[in-house]
Amino acid sequence: MLRLPWFEHRAPRSVAEAAKILAGEGPGAMLIAGGTDLLPNMKRRHQSPAVLVSLRGIEELRGLNGGIGSAVTLSRIVESPKTPTALRQAAAQVATPQLRNMGTLGGNLCLDTRCNYYNQTYEWRKAIDFCLKKDGKTCWVATASKRCVAVSSTDTAPALIALNAAVKLVSAQGEREIPVENLYKNDGIEYLSRRPDEILTEVKVPAGWKSTYWKLRRRGSFDFPILGVAVSLKLEKDVIVDARVALGAVASRPFLVEKAGEFLKGRTLTDEVIAQAAELVANRAKPMDNTDMDLYWRKEVADDFAGYALRELRGDDMRETRLRIARQLP
To answer: Residues of CATH 3.30.465.10 domain(s) within the chain?
Structure first.
């Protein structure tokens, strides 16, 4: 049985109180909301915080009016009629209903990066002399690399990047707002630009986008993404006036595919345009051999998934394709 390490627990009732606790406790403190990722990681000794600061009792983080509070559960996001399509689809494909009832939007955005050599028990990792991400000196995926290449595992981030969303970060020193894409760094260890003393309190999503999210995983439920493609368009009749395409699970951060977005502007979604845009997306997908399925096939299928997303936004009926992907293996 894997057991949690000893820790102290704080239960603030306001963001200001939580920020004050974080500032006072220093780097030994970590935030917890649903705990669906952090607690299993603590059992495997990936993280061993001395203090957990719970956000569950902070009412102001559970709002859906205006911005989306970071402690809103994924289930509520799926159920809300105000949720943009891509975000709803992304949230609906995270884990299982039970975990979505606990997991929060803020938690999914700040989800730890993953790797076959990292997401193991302490004894398993000890047997290989650990890895660069935790307790070791070697990246077993790319042994010559000085940077950890653990992969981004969040579903909601690509969707929110495509939707041009922003997050609000609050600390005892003040607050700031940044685009979701700037929340991430291309480093498997230091993957967030959020400081340890900052709390992600709110996500602001602009209106007016037509959007979708496509996820690849081995099983039709529960699995983390091994590819995520999110596309958002603004249309005037059939002409694209603005476009944003984001990729997830193919690098240590989710990111915007700017060339594909620029290419789509001013065009209509003909088969030829979709094929060219999908190729631009696939060119940016550079998966590593640190998660499920063959990395070369995962790169190839990025082209297909980008095409599926664009055809769905064109108005094609893609329900059978979604069901086939959910039920079959390559």
So the answer is: 8-113+147-204
